[in-house]
Each structure stands twice: as C-alpha cells, then as structure tokens.
Amino acid sequence: MRARFLKRAIAPEKVAELIISAIRNRKFFIITSFDIKLLFFFKKYCFPIYHLVMLTISRVRDKLFKKTI
After folding, report:
1. What are the residues whose beta carbons fall under 8 Å from the beta carbon of 29, sequence distance 6 or more?
2. CB-based burial of residue 32 (10 Å sphere; 0-12 exposed, 13-18 middle, 19+ buried)?
3. C-alpha dihedral (16, 21, 24, 29), degrees to nearest 10
4. Tell me, what's the pLDDT at 57?
5. What residues in the chain have per-residue pLDDT under 70?
6. Nearest Cα to 61, choosing from 32, 49, 53?
7. Is there a single domain that holds both residue 19 and residue 44?
8. For a surface tag, which of 8, 20, 58, 68 has the fewest beta carbons within 10 Å of its beta carbon?
9. Residues 46 and 22 in one domain
10. Where in the sequence is the domain holding 28, given as residue range(s)?
11. Percent of the chain whose predicted confidence (pLDDT) is above 70
12. DSSP state string for 3-40
C-alpha cells in the first residue's frame, strides 16, 4: 500500500507552491490532487455515492488491518 501511495504522491515542493498560492489568493480550501478533487465533488454534489465509497474504503482497510494482527 505504501508503494502505491508513493507512486501517486505529489512532491512536497508542489504542495507547498499550491499552499502559498492559496494563501496569496485568500482561498480557504486547497485541492492538491485529482483524487481529492473527485472526492470533494462527490461529497458536495452526490453525497450518497461519496458515503458509499467511504464505507467501502473503511471496510476494506478494517479487513486488511485484522489480517495483519
């Protein structure tokens, strides 16, 4: 899971640029990647889909965690 995250992760320098830009433009919310943008869209406009996705992710992570114990 960690390797998959590292492939998709955005460089800290890029995130820092986004944060500085948002502060300069007085933005409250900073979206750093496409997957976050997609989840934000579903949460705002299609909450049932967002809720279902979050439940599924939670259940999968719980099962994986129980296997490692």
Report:
1. 40
2. middle
3. -90
4. 92
5. 1, 5, 69
6. 53
7. no
8. 68
9. no
10. 1-32
11. 94
12. HHHHHHPPPHHHHHHHHHHHHHTT-S----SHHHHHHH
Q: Do 44 and 23 lie in a common domain?
A: no
Q: Which helix (H) or strand (E) holds 65?
A: helix 47-68
Amino acid occupying residue 47: F
Place of tokens 């994986």: 64
CA angle, 62 then 66 then 36, to 5° = 30
Task: Centre a 10 Å sphere on the Cβ of residue 24 and count the other Cβ atoms it contains.
Answer: 8
Residue 66: Cβ within 10 Å count: 8
Q: Say yes or no: 50 and 68 in one domain.
A: yes
Is there a single domain that holds both residue 2 and residue 28? yes
Distance of CA 30 to the CA centre of its chain: 11
Taking the C-alpha atoms of residue 61 and residue 29, their distance in angstroms, rounded to an integer, is 27
